[in-house]
Amino acid sequence: IITSVRDEEHFFDGTRFRAYLLQLDILRECAAHRQDTSLNMFEDQGLHSHLKSLISKMMSRKDDIEELGINSCRKIGAAIDFLVLMLEKGRVSVAHELLTAGGEADSFFRLVLRAPSEEISDPVVLCASIGALLFVLKNEEWRDLYLEDIISSCLLTEPDNRIMPYADRKFLKPLHERCVRHSMLSEGTDQAEVVQTYTPDFNSIMNPFAHQVFIFVIRFLSVFSELSAEHPRCKDVAQAFNEQGRDKKLFKLLQVPNEDVKKEIMNSLERMDANDLEEEEIEDLLNLVDPSSIEKEELLLGAVMKSLQQLLIVSDVFRSNHGLRVLRQTWQILATNSARMTYGSREEECQKRDLSLKVVTLFSAASGQDILRRHLKSEAVVSNFCCVVKNEELHHSWDMDDIHVELTWPGRQMNFLMSCLLGNYALDPRRKQAFRIVSRMADVLCGAPHKIWGSALDRGKAEALMWSDAKIRNDCGKLDESCYQDRTDQQRNFCFFEGVEKLLAFLESASSGKQELRLPISWKRDLKVLKAVSPPKEGALDKDKTDAPLVAKDEAITHLPSDVACSLCRSLSTSWEPHGAICRRRRKNGQILGCSRGICWECMETRPSEDVGMVRASKDEFDILMDSAWWMHEACMEVEDLTEYFGSTSALQAAKAAAEQEGKAAQASTEGVKSGANDAAAFEAEQHALVRRGEEFFHKLFASSDSVPKTGKEHQAELEFEDAIGDKSGTNLLQEAFMHESWKNDVAQVAIDVKCFTAPEVPHFLQNVHSFYLSGTEGHVARCYSLAALLRAIYAVLTLPAIEAFRDRMVSMMRKESIIVRVIGLIGQCDSYVDCNIAAKFLRMMSIALRCSAGQGAVYEKHHLISTYLVLDFARKCLLAMQPMLSSVGACYTLTLQQQILSREALRAIKHLSEVIVRLEIPGVAPSIRMRTIEDAFDHLSVPRLGQTIFLSMLYNIQADLGSQHGQYINERFVKSSLARREVTSLASEVIALYVWGCQRRSYEVFSLFATYSVAAGHKTVNSYYCDLMGRIELLHIRWALEEKVQKRYGDPQEYILQVSFIEIPGEQQTWRKAKSPGAGPRMLVVTNRRMLILARKRHGLLLKPCGFCPQESFCPVAPEVEREINFTTLTRIIAGSDPQLFMLASQKMVDGEVAGENVDFFVCHRSDDRNGLINTISYLSGPTTDMRIMPSMETLITEALHRRMASRIICISFAMARMPTGEEKLTMCVLTEIEFSGFEVDFDKWIVPASAQPHHDTTGDHADVLDIIEGEQKSAKSKTFMKVRGIMDEDQILRHREDDEEDDENGKSRNLLAERAARLAKTQKEVDAGWIRSRPARSLWDGFNESRLEEVEENRMRAAKKTEEAIVDSAEEANTQGGVACMGFRTKAVSSTASAVLLKPDQVRNKVETERRKNILECILKEPIVQLERIEFDGGDLPRLKLVFKGKKKDSPKLDVDLLFLDDAARESWRRGLALTLHRGSADEQWQREWDTPAAGPAF
Q1: Euclidean distance between CA atoms 1375 and 762, whole angstroms
Q2: d(C-alpha 1445, C-alpha 1426), whole Å
Q3: Is the pLDDT of residue 307 over 60?
Q4: What pLDDT was estimated at residue 434?
Q5: Cα separations (Å) of 31 from 43, 345, 1118, 1435, 1466?
């Protein structure tokens, strides 16, 4: 073939052109399939040189190419195309050989330049030549060499451009004649028959050769716009083309009836300047958006969508003038495209999907434009949103790509989303479309962005993870003003329009047993909704017509008026709008047909075919067709009416076939429906049983309060029983507790089966059962995913509401017994409690909804207690089911991550809801009877196995930390497991303390578990945990004893103690050994619903035991003393430190009765889990309404100073008593990072209040992805407004190095931006409409305040803050006037106060003050690298001590021992996990392992 192609005689033989073209085609196919082999052969045999020589000889025969014959031009065009193929895919040597000698007349470049430079040329040669020039222009080497030749030869910058006329009508007639000749040659027709006496229009050109010319001309005109950024001359040519009207000519070419030409034009128009478009051109572009041309021009519409998207983004003028029309027309394209019946045809589905995705992408781009968002909310633009989603469900295969229309701005509107779940077009709850809608609702309420991301499967995987409060806050912080306001509106719609109940009803409908046929759906006449199931029985419709209400026949209306009853259900409309259709039709000749009986839309949708028939209408159809809409019973129709109604005879037959098919399916599913009805009845009975159990519990709870103890002897015995636990701690107290006979007589011990070497049987509902898609179904989604999305939507409103009233509304909603039992029922219908963590998420959500508010001192409501019981019962069920798996304490079975989360959340729910029972208030009864009632409640809830299971949860967590799962080595498995089990020990300890205090008759049962497991399983106990547990019990006794003292002291029986915590006040330095001496005990902070009390240290110290005569509540021998009282009205700021213990309270400083600034009190809590409770309570009580409350803010000075000193990510921060090498003990801020351990002494005298109020959020229970922490890829919070500063902190904040002081001005600007953002969020959150109730703390000090006093309090707070800022600036100016370089550290010479005032603004002065204070506030007293760490010792005594042994810095240097005494045992356990994480990540060369001092006794926990 190569020999024949190179043959000159063959090339010039005009009769053999077909064979020559066929041979070139064969060679081209060879190059396509075996590229390297074929091209090497072509080049080795010099095929490119011969072809170039043949082209040159052929062209030299005539002066103009057009004078050559058609046969010759076809050969030239084919040869040039083949050479371009070799240039693009062949060796570099071929390009150099063909193009290097460009100056020669017979060079390839000059040959291909000839046709474009002629005034009119042959279309085939022209296309091939332009293709060669495009190769030259796109190659940087050849473009630089030949660009000027191309411009000058084709006169591109001149008015008589050689290429531009081909896009106009100037050369259209000769071009078309030549193209017709080429077509006739291909068809074998005589070319002499071509006679063309008219100039054709673009819309009449059907010739493929002409289409090919247009395509290459468009590419040539567009390439210079593409290259304008790379070469200045290309930019000049592109500008010349614009001046010559290129865009206008291209728009005219849109009339060419060829989809490839139009697509090429649209691709070219994407690169043009939208501001240069004229109105006529825009009109031509918008006219292409025609829904009627979808099936014929899908590719063109896709290109049009892409161009319109670009115009909407870049052109403000286009967006303002044409944005509404574009959105309306493109939505019609999406709606019409979605209604195409493509199910079963994969190719058509893919085409339909591609077009829909391009429309959705356009809407997603429009969603980012504020000016377009208001249009996207309108139903006039986005009509029938639900139909689009429903059509996707019906007409797409389940494994087809998702059409994420819900992720655009219309998908943020609750009314659009709810319409997909309710009404005529409700989605199937089992399919992925329903999950996407519910998940989108949760995203909107959480504040997630509207960008398109991931498939339904990807979103399902994200939904399966446990919630992260930090992620919710970060997403909300990234929202712009419009998105945040829209989130507020959507939360309002969801909360105040029964969003929870509607979603529950939708999810419950999945078990109704109803089957669905995949039938076409639309609101257009030619695509009717066929809801019929079978043909009606003979005479059935006539029977219904006998007594049905009629509408006068002389009326031509077809809508059922609101005042006319339905002929089936006899219901009237609840509004003025028509509520159905009338059996009536007016024909063109004026004849009125039909029985004139009406049927409402609900009956039209739900009634069987025996009542309605096969023919059915819909409200959407009537709304669109308006006066032209009509409907009739099938029995009232004639064949003509049926055919016209469905559009054609074939459509009628298809409808009948579908009706028969659905009738058979309905008959086959009758048994399934009955079974589903039985299941629904059983589920309803179970719900009623749950409510009855709650009511019985409530009545039993109050039964003990109806009778008073009959004799004084019984009352005295009760008091002795309550005083059984003395003021002791440690092992001695536990041993004495075992000897109390009053505990042993009434309570039978529970047999404990210690299973340490037997693998347990895991219940089915605690196993991971399902993936996202259920196996054996056509794309059905596991029910737990949609339920998890619903729970997340509720959780978002509870944790981060846009307005506080939304939280109150949601709390009242979730406290309804009916809602709780319905959710529990849905969880039970799922095959597993741990799939998607649905049980854990429900418990987490309900613990927030049911727990007492921060300022609530007592619980009275019956429904609150019943709901509390229902959730407690569910949490108890979950924990009891896990007992077999916990019995081995990690030796033979390891809990999965989902099971660990469920255990933790069950403990959290029991803790919070037990506190509700503790605060039970029974009016009119004695305190002793109230305590007896609470004890009966705990006794009723704490079945024998529950206490054991809670104990096992704590024991499992501790033993797992000590190596029961992974051995003695520190490995990745241990770190993952340890981080996933945070808080379990403290939660279990708190629950045990509550149950021991609340139900003392079960105390022996609980305490005996320690001895039983110590003997039977060999688990030796550590006294520090005993001390922590007994300390929690003691604090509960003190709390309720203090409440009585406080009520007597202030004479107010309705003053309740809300929070009690042991604290340290920095500056009052004392050693821990002196804490047991008189006058050196720990301080206590008490928060009531009316005041805060700082109690003095115990003057009698920490006694080992009471005197034996006084009850514990008498505080033998001396009661606590109130050292200072803080009034909530004087508070100005609540500030939380970067660690979990430190917080500050700023109050008004009064001088001579005037506000002169602020006093700041610093508190360090002993227990790390106390601070957030104190902060939330104080914040709630700081004002009567949301807008007056002081929101907690984050401390910045110490935090920033700490970050600047650390070179890696912070793992743990805690306050502890550190023993110095000199033997002195100091209260030290201990910091553990990834590479070093540091200890700092904080100089609180240098601390100043933060300049901006960055909101503080409770991060308790917020668990990031464990794998992310292990791999060091924890997601950083891009929104600095919601910076997480507890535990493992944000990487971008922690890894900051020490900056120079010159950057402080920029830091000040950043803080100001953060302050503005925080103020805007706080303002938005505090806005409450006038019609909403503003919640006040019940029975607080604000009860008697009128408006004038409230305004005075606000003014004083603002005045105090202003005075503080003035004092900070004045102190800096005073230091400036004294001169000296070191006074403030930011100037180089002394200047006067006047000069400094001119040079620095107040905010700049404050930044400089912060810079100086930041340098000196922390004094580093210890700093050692982790690589030098040699040994870690956890002391087994009563106190939570930790000893770190570091190697000497030199070989002969002694080892350094760092002895830390933590304020509570939980802080030491957090350091145990943090050290494990640090050692695992930093010790690649050596393996850490555990050693015990007494191996025979076994590990201690």
Answers
A1: 71
A2: 10
A3: yes
A4: 93
A5: 12, 34, 102, 79, 73
Q: Which amino acid is at 290?
A: D
Q: Which residues pair with 1164 in a beta bridge?
A: 1064, 1142
Measured at the alpha carbon of residue 993, what is the angle toward residues 849 and 1100, in degrees to the nearest 5? 125
Distances (CA, A) of 1341 to 27, 107, 752: 95, 99, 50
CA distance 846 to 871: 7
| Euclidean distance between CA atoms 429 and 783, whole angstroms | 8
Which residues neighbour 528 within 8 Å (Cβ) at sequence distance 6 or greater?
520, 522, 621, 645, 646, 655
In angstroms, the CA 1001 to CA 745 distance is 9
Q: Average pLDDT in the 243-270 region? A: 79
Residue in the structure block whose two tokens are 């409501």: 861
pLDDT tens-digit series, residues 1483-1500: 544 556 656 554 443 333
Is 537 in a helix, a strand, or coil?
A: coil
Nearest to 913 by CA among 847, 831, 818, 842: 847
Helices (runs of H) and strands (runs of E) counted in the chain = 58, 20
Instruction: Give the Cα separation of 862 and 817 in Å (integer).
Output: 11
Q: How many angstroms separate the Cα of 147 from the Cα of each of 113, 137, 220, 223, 237? A: 12, 7, 13, 12, 11
- How far is the C-alpha of 992 from the C-alpha of 955, rounded, in Å? 12
The encoded tokens of residue 238 equal: 């592109």
Mean pLDDT of the 510-524 span: 42
Write down the pLDDT at residue 302.
Answer: 80
State the CB neighbour count (10 A cutoff) for residue 182: 22
Q: Are the CB atoms for 213 and 243 separated by under 8 Å? A: no
Peptide bond into 1117 cis (omega under 30): yes
d(CA 542, CA 547) in angstroms, rounded, equals 10
For 1037-1087, the pLDDT digits (tens) are 888 888 888 888 888 888 888 889 988 888 665 544 444 444 556 788 999
What is the structure's pLDDT at 1404? 81
C-alpha dihedral sign at 312, 315, 318, 320 = positive
Residue 770 in tokens:
């399902």
How many angstroms separate the CA atoms of 183 and 412, rounded? 55
- Structural tokens at position 769: 């059962």
Output the CA–CA distances (angstroms, integers) from residue 1491 to 462, 954, 1428, 1431, in the order listed: 41, 22, 19, 10
d(C-alpha 817, C-alpha 686), whole Å:
13
Q: pLDDT averaged over the chain? A: 75
Counting every residue, how long is the chain?
Answer: 1501
Which residue type sits at 1210?
I
Residue 540 has pLDDT above 70, yes or no: no
Give the Cα separation of 1093 and 186 in Å (integer): 102
Region 636-650: mean pLDDT is 81
R_g of the chain, CA atoms, integer Å: 41
User: Which residue type does 327 have?
Assistant: L
399: part of which helix (H) or strand (E)? none
Q: For residue 1087, which amino acid is it? A: V
Higher per-residue confidence, 527 vs 704: 704
Cα distance between residue 454 and residue 449, in whole Å: 13
The residues with which 1446 forms a beta bridge, in sequence order, are: 1429, 1456
User: Which pLDDT belongs to residue 1295?
Assistant: 31
pLDDT given for residue 927 in this prediction: 73
Please give the Cα distance from 1432 to 1472 (Å, whole number): 9
How far apart (Å, rounded) are the C-alpha atoms in residues 221 and 269? 11
Q: Which of 475, 485, 477 is nearest to 1316 (CA)?
A: 477
Rounded CA gap, 790 and 784, in Å?
10
* Res 793 pLDDT > 90: yes
Cβ atoms < 10 Å from Cβ of 457? 15
Classify each residue of 1320-1352 as buried b or exposed e, where b means 16 or more C-beta atoms within 10 Å of its C-beta: ebeeebeebeeeeeebebebbbbeebeeeebee
**Residue entry with tokens 């809670």:** 950
